[in-house]
């Protein structure tokens, strides 16, 4: 099987199915066609007994995937079209396919990984980050919420790290992604191509461990403080905790509080409520709820809210 388009490349390499996002000038941002092609490729690879695992990587050296193509979706909303709803429905379906995939799914999360890029990677079974990884769910910074199952992924992140990532809309490195439960393995960028070849040769994810390195300490050793600061279930109390830590000289807390305060308070409240509702809930149900939430937020965008 080999399919190449301007936006996505699909091939069988040895014992691996290989999907390459090929829209590097747009930071491999997902459009509807890419979502559909990726879904079709995964379904075909799943039925192909000669394919032992699937690898997803990206062309270029800047981004794995910078999310959905927001400009196209916004223009569609202004015209009161249906493309946005159709895109989200198919994108969310793809997220469920990835989460429930019967074969090992190995995303190579090099460079920028944002929004929809998290959706096509963090739901996978064997998630690889590198020294160039910059991962985040930046939606609260534009008055939106972490979708593609983000309200589940981040709600279930250990030690309240998901609250930190969602409320601040920060991007973090691969080490932090592993600490937050969004990735599993740290592999140097210089070893990624050799990893791809070894996976294709053996068809076994056991070889990933041959290329991994121990990541540095995540979040500069302040996870204990973060866990306590983000323990409350409302934004105001979280900010009070961060302000108290800032007064004691915690620079990370000052930065976090500044980021949170410049985001929409209503959006942050909606996000925390979604966290409460979606923690431990089956992904399909979470995405059904997020689909409804997406439609409501788009209406507000168009109205200028």
From TrEMBL:
Catalysed reaction(s) here are: 3-hydroxy-2-methylpropanoyl-CoA + H2O = 3-hydroxy-2-methylpropanoate + CoA + H(+)
Naming one, the record's GO cellular component terms include:
cytosol
The protein's matches in Pfam families, at most eight in alphabetical order, are given as: ECH_2
- Top EC class per UniProt? hydrolase
Q: Which domain of life does the protein's organism represent?
A: Bacteria
Q: What is this protein called?
A: 3-hydroxyisobutyryl-CoA hydrolase
Pinpoint the Enoyl-CoA hydratase/isomerase domain residues. 17-296
Going by the UniProt record, its keywords in alphabetical order are: Hydrolase, Lyase
Q: Lineage of the source organism?
A: Bacteria, Bacillati, Actinomycetota, Actinomycetes, Mycobacteriales
What is this enzyme's EC?
A: 3.1.2.4
The terms under GO molecular function for this entry are: 3-hydroxyisobutyryl-CoA hydrolase activity; lyase activity
A Gene Ontology annotation in the biological process aspect, one of them, is:
L-valine catabolic process
């Amino acid at each position: 099987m080999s399919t190449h388009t301007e936006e996505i490349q699909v091939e069988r390499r040895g014992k691996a199915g290989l999907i390459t996002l090929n829209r590097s000038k747009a930071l491999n941002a997902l459009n509807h066609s890419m979502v559909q092609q990726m879904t079709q490729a995964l379904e075909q690879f799943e039925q192909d007994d000669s394919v032992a695992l699937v690898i997803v990587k990206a062309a270029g050296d800047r981004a794995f995937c910078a999310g959905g193509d927001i400009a196209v979706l916004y223009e569609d909303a202004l015209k009161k079209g249906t493309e946005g709803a159709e895109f989200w429905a198919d994108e969310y379906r793809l997220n469920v396919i990835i989460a429930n995939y019967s074969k090992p799914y190995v995303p190579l999360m090099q460079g920028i990984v944002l929004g929809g890029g998290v959706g096509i990677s963090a739901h996978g079974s064997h998630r690889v980050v590198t020294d160039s990884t910059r991962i985040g769910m930046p939606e609260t910074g534009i008055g939106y919420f972490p979708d593609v199952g983000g309200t589940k992924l981040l709600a279930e992140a250990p030690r309240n790290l998901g609250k930190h990532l969602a409320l601040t809309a920060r991007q973090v490195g691969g080490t932090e992604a592993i600490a937050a439960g969004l990735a599993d393995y740290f592999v140097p960028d210089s070893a990624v191509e050799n990893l791809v070849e070894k996976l294709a040769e053996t068809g076994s994810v056991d070889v990933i461990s041959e290329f991994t390195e121990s990541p540095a300490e995540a979040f500069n050793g302040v996870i204990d403080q973060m866990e306590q600061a983000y323990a409350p279930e409302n934004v105001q109390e979280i900010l009070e905790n961060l302000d108290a830590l800032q007064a004691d000289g915690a620079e990370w807390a000052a930065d976090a509080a500044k980021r949170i305060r410049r985001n929409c308070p209503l959006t942050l409240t909606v996000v925390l409520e979604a966290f409460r509702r979606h923690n431990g809930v089956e992904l399909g149900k979470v995405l059904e709820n997020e689909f409804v939430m997406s439609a409501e937020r788009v209406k507000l965008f168009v109205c200028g809210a």
